[in-house]
């Protein structure tokens, strides 16, 4: 019996196609008899014939990608094959599909060619789900008098009685936020992919620490991706295990977040000369139970002039220093993150200081103007003169 082999290569990934013929004759790469079905390669870049085997070699395929090869091989029905009813391809490999005339060729979607027809078959490989290894594909040819063959359920097979040929599996699980706090609303998103040829429905179950807490159904079209999102509020701190259909994540729920607190701020001087630097030190402590970062802002006179970023583990303490040069005389308020560390006064070298003092009476007399002293000195002289000279006199002629 002739066999057909398909080799789909991605690095060393190989898939083999073995040919099964229920009642009709199939040849590979030969001139068919009028009542036979023949398989022939289309593109020599992908398909080779060797020892009656049809081998498909598709070079290296990209990871996590879907690649379609439109024209790979043909199926030709002989002119006298009047009793041929259906042809289909059966396999059990996720991520591999055969197409003809825009539709996937499966047990539930069969070809019905007429005598003399030629059908071109393409192959699609999805490396999101296709695994390395050797697999078997079967080409079925059903004639009028043949019995319906039994077929295992699979990505391209299924049963003729209408059972779903969908192949759905969870491919990813994402949890946000990744560092939740007690009381946060958690979103758990599961991604599903249907690698089969029929639509299908799956019931996604969210488990928290092994207990099913929520369910959601999702219907996925063939070769499509859908997501299901669960919302959950976690009220207790600690590690929590989350799982949806075998995809699991663990999150650490914290009771509190980081709490970086400024516990002290101080300035190293109260008075400075112009051009001298002032140093302010600020002490921070993380009073929360998670590591965190903060930006310390140093302000002079109400304006932020410098910043520093600090990172602290829970219960860790650190001190940051700011240095600033004040050139202009005046009094300045220095603060860190709005907390006043102190004030500093920058003096003016050219300023004259006047001291206001109350003088004693004797001192005031000592600094009296010279004119006052002269008046005091002349007073007794004038007095003595009046004592010597008597203004009262008698005219001698009258005597």
Structure notes:
This protein has 399 residues and is mainly beta. It has three domains: 26-143, no CATH class; 168-253, Sandwich (Immunoglobulin-like), CATH 2.60.40.10; 260-346, Immunoglobulins (Immunoglobulin-like). Helices cover 6% and strands 46% of the residues. A hairpin with a 2-residue loop joins strand 3 and strand 4. The longest helix is centred in the C-terminal third of the chain and has 19 residues, at 370-388.
Mind sketching the topology for me?
Blueprint: E1 26-28, E2 37-41, E3 47-50, E4 53-56, E5 66-77, E6 84-91, E7 96-100, E8 103-104, E9 118-126, E10 137-143, E11 168-176, E12 185-194, E13 200-208, E14 211-220, E15 225-233, E16 238-244, E17 247-253, E18 260-267, E19 271-272, E20 277-286, E21 292-300, E22 303-312, E23 317-325, E24 330-336, E25 339-346, H1 361-366, H2 370-388
Parallel strand pairs: 1-2, 19-25
Antiparallel strand pairs: 2-5, 3-4, 5-9, 6-10, 7-8, 7-9, 11-12, 12-15, 13-14, 13-16, 16-17, 18-20, 20-23, 21-22, 21-24, 24-25
């Amino acid at each position: 019996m002739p066999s057909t082999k398909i080799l789909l290569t991605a690095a060393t990934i190989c898939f083999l196609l073995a040919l099964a013929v229920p009642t009709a004759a199939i040849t590979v790469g030969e001139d068919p008899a009028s009542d036979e079905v023949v398989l022939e390669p289309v593109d020599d870049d992908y398909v080779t014939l060797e020892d009656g085997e049809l081998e498909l070699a598709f070079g290296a395929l990209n990871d996590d990608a879907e690649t379609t090869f439109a024209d790979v091989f043909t199926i030709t029905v002989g002119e006298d094959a009047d009793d041929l009813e259906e042809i289909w391809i059966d396999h059990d490999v996720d991520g591999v599909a055969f197409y003809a005339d825009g539709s996937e060729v499966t047990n539930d979607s069969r070809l019905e060619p007429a005598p003399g027809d030629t059908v071109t078959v393409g192959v699609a490989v999805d490396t999101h789900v296709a695994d390395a290894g050797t697999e078997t594909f079967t080409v079925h040819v059903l004639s009028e008098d043949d019995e319906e063959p039994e077929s295992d359920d699979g990505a391209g097979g299924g049963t003729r009685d209408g059972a779903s040929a969908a192949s759905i599996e969870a491919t990813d699980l994402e949890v946000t936020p990744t560092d939740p706090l007690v009381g946060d609303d958690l979103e758990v998103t599961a991604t599903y992919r249907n690698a089969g040829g029929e639509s299908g429905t799956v019931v996604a179950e969210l488990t928290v620490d092994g207990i099913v807490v929520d369910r959601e159904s999702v219907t996925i079209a063939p070769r499509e991706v859908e997501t299901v999102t669960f919302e959950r509020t976690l009220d207790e701190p600690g590690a929590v295990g989350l799982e949806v259909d075998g995809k699991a994540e663990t999150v650490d729920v914290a009771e509190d977040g980081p709490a970086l607190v400024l516990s002290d701020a101080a300035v190293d001087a109260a008075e400075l000369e112009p051009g001298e630097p002032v140093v302010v030190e600020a002490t921070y402590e993380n009073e929360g139970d998670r590591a965190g970062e903060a930006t310390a802002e140093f302000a002079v006179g109400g304006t932020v002039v410098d910043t520093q970023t600090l990172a602290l583990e829970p219960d860790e303490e650190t001190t940051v220093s700011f240095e600033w040069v004040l050139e202009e005389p005046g009094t300045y308020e220095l603060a860190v993150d709005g907390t006043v560390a102190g004030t500093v006064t920058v003096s003016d070298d050219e300023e004259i200081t006047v001291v206001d003092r109350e003088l004693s009476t004797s001192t005031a007399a000592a600094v009296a103007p010279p004119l006052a002293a002269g008046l005091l000195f002349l007073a007794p002289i004038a007095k003595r003169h009046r004592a010597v000279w008597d203004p009262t006199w008698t005219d001698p002629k009258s005597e």
